[in-house]
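Most newcomers find our protein records easier to grasp once they have seen one. To make this concrete, we reproduce a full record directly below:

===
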Amino acid sequence: MTMENDRDNGEAQCRYCIDLNWYHEQGRSFSLLATSRLCPSSQKKKIPKSETALLNTIKQCCSKWEGFFSPNTPLLEMVFRLFLANGNKPLTLAQIQDRLQQLLTDTVGSRDLSISKLKRIIDDDSYYGLRPTISTDVEEANSEPENL
């Protein structure tokens, strides 16, 4: 199945985000995991205490750092970083696919970025707390998230 056909089957519109409650339920720390993704300049500053402030620091500063996204990064880690970089706003599988293709322009041929593969690895996640979201706001579902 080609990526174009893959996008037409409805799965492409499944929306995901990092479920911060999942970390609490699992007895894990989102802040600890996210803090380890801070860029060198943010690591030297006072680490934000709240999850919201931490997400904002990563979005405003760290996601713009050249080393934040690397072609050698495992796919699920890259998806996690996409959510960190956009402040954990929900993204559809199609949006995730588009952003990964932009980030991996030089190496995309060597990686399977099909909607079905992305859905499978995100649905199987038991480390990053990536979960489907249910959009209650139709306008929100049709809006495009900010570019990274």
Remarks:
- The first strand starts at residue 15 and ends at 18.
- The radius of gyration is 15 Å.
